[in-house]
Every structure is written in structure tokens, then in C-alpha cells.
Write a structure and sequence with these properties.
single chain, 448 residues, alpha/beta, 58% helix, 18 helices, Spore Coat Polysaccharide Biosynthesis Protein SpsA, Chain A
Length: 448
């Protein structure tokens, strides 16, 4: 009887996993449709944009990224680029780079191009948030002719490559909701997808499958959540799910009005700083509008780097109680007025962390039960894998295959690699918890 009960519980969990994958497909379709349907006329008037690039050891990609942004169409009088280097690079550099540092490269680019400015964060113990906050503090000094109320900082990474019409889409979105202070662009994670062909067979498939899973997460989770939180904070749709959701802010593709940033800066000494900031913004009921355009970023080029990146990201939802205490301390009046909602947002974030921890454990359980009980479990498990991977194939067909042919054999191999990714997914989360219990936080910087 106990064994049968265990079997029934496994079947129920598998059915719920299949249902979850089905709804993820629906959300992916909606996200893709939202991006593809963005073809209306572009208005002529627009605010000032300063593209902000916080960098640390980015010699390989910085100049290419700066040149890419300089070529993007926008009013030349209203677009500038700000590179923020940090003293940490000189402290940690040792003998790794014998030639030009990012600091000297940024200085050279600022001297060569009139639209490029360089700012150096003078402390060696800061994080990315400190560089971003430093650029906010120095805004009036750097751009004395610009109004904070009519200027947006557009934060990107040194490897970012947004769509060529991103600023036109921003102009259109801004014209529709000119009072909105924050616009979030999401990202594909396929920029270096084909560079993985140089790896050995196993690493190549693993890294490609990971880049697709990461992009699947953006379309099935990040974009829908941004829209839900915007609908609640703007008063469009106040459902219970929208009430309990926080916006997963990401610091590449983040357009924020400078006057708002001067009031609500990024939390220092915390990582991931962008998710923390998104939690605060959600608690303060500040709408974050989705920008229907895509950035394209790189994913780590080794399994170890993937592991450390995921371990660092896991802290985002897992440490939400820390975010709640921060809001309570620094935004006391708002906390008192919205205590229940802030608690609910915090608990739902913890649920995200639990879901992350359980993903691989459930897949291991399903596989073991398949060997124990045979075809009923295997049929459901195969159906679950198909439903899960279908979302990845939708992304391949929409954003990758149109530019580079991917044959059936590669799709078939990626399908099975995706199963390995599911088995791997929770391991970095357990590692992150283990490090936290030892009093150490995983702080990851993806080296390129």
C-alpha cells in the first residue's frame, strides 16, 4: 500500500510538472507575439539617453560594444555613452593582462569619440552596484546640460548587443506612457551560441542547451512577470497573482529615469543588485514597463562558470527576507502602509527558490520511479521532457534558425542535453546555500 501511494504521488507530481510546462509554452508564445507585433510608427520626440556600461576586465568586448551603440539610430544630440571602470581591476589584475586594461581602453575611447565619457570608480572594494550608483551621483557633473527628469540611464553589460531598433522602440513606448520611470528590455542568451561548436562534444551540447534554457526562462518567466507587476502597479489589473509578484529587474537593458535613480539607488554590498532593486521597486509600487525589444547576451563558456553564475543568481529569490528587511529599514512609511503585500512578495520569492531547489530532485525521482515501475512513469516523463523542450525549440525556430541553419540532428542532441540541464539545474542552488551556511556568499563575475 505504501509503495502504491508513493507511485500515485509521483504520478501526480509528474502531471503537475507537465501542466507547468504547458503553461510555460503558452507564456512563451505570448512573449514572442508581443515582441513580433511591435511595428507601429515611431514618434519623433524623445528623452535623452545615456548608455551606461559598468565594466570590470572587459578588454575583449568593450570597444566592439561601444562602436555598436554609436551606430544605433537615435537623435545624435540626445544619445551619449558612459563607461564606468573600477579601481578593483587594478587591485585584482595581477599578471593576468599584460597589455591594455579596461581602464586605459575606456580612457582611449572617451578621447577618441565625443559621445563617449569615462568615469572611474575610485574604490577597490566595491561591486557593480557601487559603480552604477557612482554614475548616478556624478550625473550633474558629467552632464550639466541634461535634466534628470528628461534623461534615462540605459544600463547594459559590456557584451550586450540589443536589437538595432531598440531606441526607436523605447521612443514609441515612452510616447505611450511618458510618466513611466522604468522600462525593462529582456535578453536572449544566444550571442555566443555557435562559438560553442569549438568545444568538445559534451561541453558543446551542454552549453548550447544551457543557453536555450536560460532564454526559455526569460520568455516563460521574466517577461510575463514584468507585465504582471506593471499591470498591478499602474492600476490596470489588480489580481491576487499580480499583487504577490515582484518584477525581476535586470541591469542589462534597464532604462531608468535619472530623477528616480537619484531617489532610489541600487543597494550596495548586495548581489545580485539588480534583482534586489527590482524587489524594492515592486514594493514601492513603481511601475516597470516591458520594452518589447531584445538584447542579446553571452552565456558562460564553461560548465564551471555556468555553475557559479547560477549559484550567484539563486541568492536573488532565496535572500528575499533580506530585501524585505531593507525596505522596512529605509522605506519605513511605505512598509507600514503595504506590510501585507511586501510579506506576500517576499514569500512568493522564497517559493521561487524552493521551486529551483526541487527541480532536479523531482527529475531524479521521476527517473528512479521509471526504472522501478516501468512504462506508465516513462510515458509521462517523456511527455514532460517534450513539453519542456518544446519551449526551447520555439526559441530556436524564432531567433536562431532564421540566421543559422540548425539541422534535425543537432535539435535531437540538444533535446537530450536539455534533460541533463534539468538534472544539473538545482546543484548550484545547493552549493549557494552551503556557502551561505559557512558565512560566504557566491559573488560571480563572468570572465570573457
Amino acid at each position: 500500500m505504501k509503495i502504491n501511494l508513493f507511485l500515485y504521488i509521483t504520478i501526480i507530481l509528474l502531471a503537475l510538472s507537465i501542466l507547468k510546462a504547458f503553461f510555460a509554452i503558452k507564456r512563451i508564445k505570448k512573449s514572442i507575439k508581443l515582441i513580433n507585433n511591435n511595428k507601429e510608427n515611431i514618434p519623433t520626440d524623445a528623452p535623452n539617453i545615456v548608455v551606461v556600461l559598468p565594466v570590470l576586465r572587459e578588454q575583449k568586448s568593450l570597444e566592439e560594444t561601444v562602436l555598436y551603440f554609436l551606430k544605433l539610430p537615435y537623435d545624435t544630440k540626445k544619445l551619449q555613452i558612459l563607461i564606468i571602470t573600477t579601481e578593483k581591476e587594478l587591485k585584482e589584475n595581477s599578471s593576468r593582462f599584460q597589455e591594455e586594461t579596461t581602464i586605459s581602453l575606456a580612457k582611449r575611447l572617451s578621447e577618441k569619440y565625443n559621445k563617449v565619457k569615462w568615469l572611474h570608480y575610485p574604490k577597490a572594494n566595491g561591486l557593480k552596484a557601487d559603480q552604477m550608483n557612482y554614475s548616478i551621483e556624478k550625473f550633474n557633473q558629467l552632464f550639466p546640460s541634461l535634466s534628470p527628469a528628461n534623461t534615462f540611464y540605459a544600463f547594459y553589460d559590456a557584451d550586450s548587443k540589443p536589437s538595432k531598433n531598440v531606441f526607436d522602440i523605447f521612443k514609441k513606448s515612452y510616447a505611450q506612457i511618458p510618466n513611466c520611470n522604468i522600462f525593462q528590455q529582456s535578453s536572449l542568451y544566444t550571442k555566443n551560441y555557435f562559438s560553442f561548436n569549438k568545444k568538445n562534444f559534451f561541453r558543446k551540447l551542454f552549453l548550447k542547451a544551457q543557453s536555450l534554457k536560460q532564454t526559455r526562462f526569460i520568455f516563460s518567466y521574466e517577461i510575463p512577470r514584468i507585465i504582471r507587476v506593471y499591470n498591478y502597479c499602474s492600476g490596470k489589473k489588480k489580481s491576487f497573482l499580480n499583487y504577490c509578484t515582484y518584477a525581476p529587474s535586470v541591469a542589462h537593458g534597464l532604462f531608468a529615469r535619472v530623477s528616480l535613480l537619484q531617489k532610489i539607488k541600487f543597494p550596495s554590498n548586495y548581489t545580485p543588485e539588480d534583482m534586489f532593486w527590482g524587489f524594492i521597486i515592486s514594493c514601492l509600487k513603481e511601475p516597470i514597463a516591458f520594452l518589447p525589444s531584445l538584447d542579446n547576451s553571452e552565456t558562460p563558456d564553461s560548465i564551471k562558470k555556468v555553475f557559479l553564475q547560477l549559484a550567484s543568481w539563486f541568492k536573488g529569490p532565496f535572500l528575499s527576507h533580506r530585501y524585505r528587511r531593507f525596505v522596512k529599514k529605509y522605506y519605513t512609511s511605505h512598509y507600514k502602509q503595504n506590510r501585507l503585500r511586501i510579506y506576500m512578495i517576499s514569500y512568493f520569492a522564497v517559493w521561487d527558490a524552493i521551486n529551483w531547489l526541487m527541480t532536479s530532485a523531482l527529475v531524479y525521482l521521476y527517473v528512479i520511479m521509471g526504472f522501478l515501475y516501468g512504462w506508465p512513469i516513462w510515458i509521462l516523463l517523456i511527455l514532460f521532457f517534450i513539453m519542456y523542450e518544446y519551449g526551447c525549440f520555439m526559441i530556436i525556430n524564432q531567433f536562431i534558425s532564421s540566421k543559422n541553419l540548425i539541422n534535425f540532428r543537432e535539435k535531437f542532441l540538444i533535446f537530450f542535453s536539455g534533460i541533463l540541464i534539468l538534472l544539473f539545474h538545482s546543484l548550484p542552488a545547493y552549493y549557494s546555500i552551503w556557502k551561505l551556511l559557512r558565512g560566504v556568499e557566491v559573488v560571480n563575475k563572468t570572465e570573457r
